[in-house]
Amino acid sequence: MPSHIPSPDRTEEFLCLLTEHEPRLARYATLLIPHLQDSDEVLQEAKLVMWRSFDRFETGTDFGAWARKVVFHQVLKFRRRPSRRLQPFPEETLELLASEIVGLEKELDYRQTALAVCIAKLPDDHRRMISLRYFDENPIEQIATQLGRKTDAVYQSLSRIRRSLHRCISDAIQVQGRSV
């Protein structure tokens, strides 16, 4: 494992670029590897590769494209591991998917922003439930216990909240003249 790191004068440049692009890279990895733990692992490995090879990155070129390429290669490397989970499609399909994701980046950014705005509009108890389920990844049964509710009631509440968020995002997209 190479121990090469960027020169000190490029460390700040790397950190700024990575911070700017990290949400898109995380989304990209998650879309290519649907298991969150696996996509997080791949993204961490990709960041290490980027860090170690940053001296070869040319300032002024497209960091996002370079970083996505690194992530994509780490995805391929992950998929070839004998211990990996079953992947739903072949590498050729993965390559097509990756290029489609790049083409949809602005739309995905807009939807992500709309989702954040819509979540902020939810009542506190709904935001808490969404956070427990989708950010903390708690199982429904644990959420029910935590909230002192029945499991079926939590399922129904989450379903209503998701429909509400979908309507809110759809409305935001229509206002901006974008398609759903």
Give the overall pLDDT as a whole number.
85
Radius of gyration (CA) equals 19 Å
Low-confidence stretches are none
CATH topology title of the largest domain? Rna Polymerase Sigma Factor, Chain: A
In helices, the fraction of residues equals over 70%
How many helices in DSSP terms? 8
Report the span from N to C terminus: 45 Å
> Which structural class do the helices and strands define?
mainly alpha
Polypeptide structure, described:
- Helix 1 (8-32) crosses helix 3 and helix 5 packs across helix 8 (151-175).
- The longest helix has 25 residues, at 8-32.
- The protein is mainly α.
- The model has no long low-confidence stretch (mean pLDDT 85).
- The chain has two domains: 8-103, Orthogonal Bundle (Rna Polymerase Sigma Factor, Chain: A), CATH 1.10.1740; 106-175, Arc Repressor Mutant, subunit A, CATH 1.10.10.
- Helices cover 75% and strands 0% of the residues.
- The termini are far apart.
- Residues 114-165 form the RNA polymerase sigma factor 70 region 4 type domain.
